[in-house]
Amino acid sequence: MVDPKSSPQEIFNKREEFGLENSVKLLTDIVETEKDYGKRKGAVKYLGLISREVPSLKKESFFPSSFF
After folding, report:
1. How far is CA 53 from CA 8, 12, 20, 37, 47, in A?
2. Which pLDDT score is estimated for 68?
3. What is the DSSP string of 12-45?
4. 7, HSE (Cβ side, Cα atoms, 13 Å)
5. How far is residue 27's CA from residue 41's CA, in Å, rounded to a whole number?
6. What percent of the chain has pLDDT over 90?
7. Domain assignments of the chain as residue spans, ordered by start
8. 3-class secondary structure, 47
């Protein structure tokens, strides 16, 4: 079970354990809902790193309009 308050780095480090799809969903949820800018920025960073393993992610946009 994944702790919903996991940090982006922890999710990235455990991506094999959580599964890539679940990790992407968790990181995307952080980007879309987290109020802490630093945590959101970290989630975007780790989504970028995961996209190297999941090429279809490179076509996605992870920046909600509220991010800017």
Report:
1. 16, 12, 9, 25, 10
2. 46
3. HHTHHHH-HHHHHHHHHHHHHH---HHHHHHHHH
4. 5
5. 10
6. 57
7. 8-57
8. helix
